[in-house]
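Need fresh eyes. Consider my entry:
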Amino acid sequence: MSAQEKFIDDFLSATDFQEPVEVTMGSVLRELPEWDSLAALGVIVMFDMEYGKVITGDDLEKVTTVGDLYQLLGL
C-alpha cells in the first residue's frame, strides 16, 4: 500500500462517513456528501494521532482537495 493509499484509508476512517464514498487525492472536500465540522474534527485528530502533525481548522479552510490535505504532512 502506498503512502497516499494509506492516507486515504486513514481519512475515510477518521471522517466515518455513513454512506460509502469513493475518495481520491483529487476529491474536493466540500463536495463530499458528509464533509462537515465533525468530519473535519476527525481529520484534525487523525493528523495528530496517526502522523504526529498538528493542524487547525484554519489549515482545513485553506485546502481544497484530499491531496491538498496530504501535502500538509510535508512528506
Residues 3-71 form a domain with the Non-ribosomal Peptide Synthetase Peptidyl Carrier Protein; Chain A fold (CATH 1.10.1200.10). The radius of gyration is 11 Å. The CA atoms of residues 52 and 64 lie 22 Å apart.
